[in-house]
Amino acid sequence: xxxxxxKATNIRPSYIASIELPPRIGPVNVEDLKADLSDEFSLVxxxxxxxxxxxLDSKEHIQxxxxxxxFTATEKENESQDCVSIQDxxxxxxxxxxNSMICRLSEKNVGQMxxxxxxxxxxxxxxxxxxxxxxxxxxxxxxxxxxxxxxxxTYGVTNAGKTYTFQGTEADIGILPRTMDMLFKSIxxxxxxxxxxxPLRCRDYIRLTKEQVREEIAVKNSILRLMKxxxxxxxxxxxxxxxxxxxxxxxNTDLLSW
Length: 258
Ligand SMILES: Nc1ncnc2c1ncn2[C@@H]1O[C@H](COP(=O)(O)OP(=O)(O)OP(=O)(O)O)[C@@H](O)[C@H]1O
Description:
By secondary structure, the protein is an alpha+beta fold. The protein is built from 9 helices and 7 strands. The protein has helices at 14-17, 50-57, 73-77, 101-110, 129-136, 138-145, 162-166, 175-187, 210-257; strands at 65-67, 84-88, 91-95, 114-118, 121-123, 197-200, 204-207. The strands form 3 sheets. It has a 3-stranded antiparallel β-sheet, with no helix packed on it. A two-stranded parallel sheet has the order 1-5. The chain is extended, with a radius of gyration of 33 Å. The termini are far apart. Bound molecules: adenosine-5'-triphosphate (ATP). Its main location: cytoplasm.
């Protein structure tokens, strides 16, 4: 039975009442909602050099990978329902949890409501940290080492597994330490061993003569000596202050007990 609404007491909130909808002109075209925007966000412009264009041509310019994490112990204890099923390596089917409102409504009206989502790559709950790194981040890091710009980020609701994926655990490191490892390995043996470069402003440097190197070392040593003296003086006065506080306190408590 339809609820009977008492019009006199059902007052619309003022913020709704105050909205004036613009008059609709002609039919609404919804086709552009499905527009493929990938061309507009294309990284390939005429300014890029040929090597960069080749590197990008073979791939999508934006890659969106999905990682589905396994249930945590608590979720298993609570018998959480699996709402995501992997259809193939790039798509998943999402079902509303059984007995949820959306599920009951959709079953009643149009059968169980399912939604399909497509990604560049889908990684299931059994995916290891190494497999995930190799399948997602390794190539962009390699591109970066060859001089291209790359941006990698994780995105998801709380508890989705972003920190685990990015940072990982001590026993099973994530994509960030694996990336750093790759970067440091790539410069191994390429480090300049001498100490005759000096940074200048933000991006420049100058090469020092032997005499200038000696002067730099002398300046640095005197700064270090000065810092050591300041630190020792600080420690000395901190100890003296503590000793004073202790004796003062002791004297007062002695007086009190007396
Ligand atoms: N691939 C995985 N394998 C095993 N455990 C995982 C995996 N991904 C996440 N977890 C576990 O799931 C829980 C939630 O993960 P995590 O803390 O990374 O989520 P988060 O997205 O960073 O959350 P928040 O946004 O709240 O910081 C943690 O207990 C984590 O150890």
